[in-house]
Amino acid sequence: MSQNLSSEPKRVFSGVQPTGQLHLGNYLGAIKKFVDLQHQHQCLFCVVDLHAITVPQERAMLAANSREIAAAFLAAGIDPDKAIVFVQSSVPAHAELAWILNCTARMGWLERMTQFKDKAGKDKERASVGLFAYPVLQAADILAYRATHVPVGEDQKQHLELSRDIAERFNRDYEAPGFFPSPEPLIQGPGARIMSLKNGSVKMSKSDPSDLSRINMNDSAEQITRKIKKARTDPDGIPSEVEGLEGRDGAKNLIGIYAALDEISVQDVLTEFAGQGWGQFKPALAELAVAKLSPVSEEFTRLMNDTRALDKVLQDGAERAHAISEPIMAEVRKYIGFWKG
Ligand code: AQP
Fold first, then answer.
1. Domain of 82?
2. pTM of the predicted structure, to 2 decimals
3. Residues 228 and 282: beta-carbon distance below 8 Å
4. Are 212 and 230 in contact (CB under 8 A)?
5. Is 117 noted as a catalytic residue in this protein?
6. Distance 218 CA to ligand 1 centre (A)
7. 166 and 185 in one domain?
8. Catalytic residue among 10, 206, 282, 334
């Protein structure tokens, strides 16, 4: 059986749920980072439809939404000849390993997960068991490939810590030292936490009832410009130093979005715009956002018109993903001692 992965190359895994409109937070916090990583490491980018069904989904929309996420990956610059792009439900290892890891994870660990509390809201009793166990499926996604690195937004930090605990516990319980790596999150950079345009203290999210709170990846130039114009800021102007953004959520968010889109530091943005008002900054941000997002949304529309080509990418990706996960699952079954180990 294989040993520690430390001498093996890095393997990157990340997933996005096919639950509707992709927004700027998903793009800057996750997808844009995927594009750079594919050149340095073996990467698997997954449309996580098993995660999506932890809350009700429309049968008529689920497959179409999965294609949309795959199209967004490719439109953003992911090359399916380099990275493996696939749909989670088409590779059986995810569900199988999730069950096994459900038996490794502890109730107390999951009860501490803040995202479950947020998503289940007041009516915890009526939430699905799947929503509660969601972070275990996430651990299975990563560990089924023995991935070492996971690019995600900051909201996923706690889930990644849980994945590490689960990996370590499996290795200990089944006397498999070093079998599963402790996956590391890749969270750095100003795009890691994009906030709502209407309320800088909550994250930009597809479930926010106000469309003005987010920039959707397929918004037109006019929509983007209007939303940025209406974004919540404060009466003060743009400071010259990062400390001047302290306690100013809306201001900090817009400056952070500019930095992430232009791939420069927050300090560089402040140096460029120090002393100016929002009336000057917002049009500059809108222009930048349109320039960066329009090519992605045009390519997205083109790809969505060729579903056969998209399905071919996803089929090929599923086969390549299965080829990696199956030998790992064979070892997992042996460690546990299943009849067909
Ligand atoms: N606001 C955000 N800023 C930075 N990164 C973000 N991500 C999500 N929102 C932000 C990152 O996007 C990746 C894919 O996320 P997901 O498909 O798991 O969706 P989510 O996190 O559930 O996205 P939403 O929009 O917040 O959905 P709802 O409203 O359903 O909760 C992940 O890497 C995530 O960190």
1. 5-193+306-336
2. 0.93
3. yes
4. yes
5. no
6. 16
7. yes
8. 206
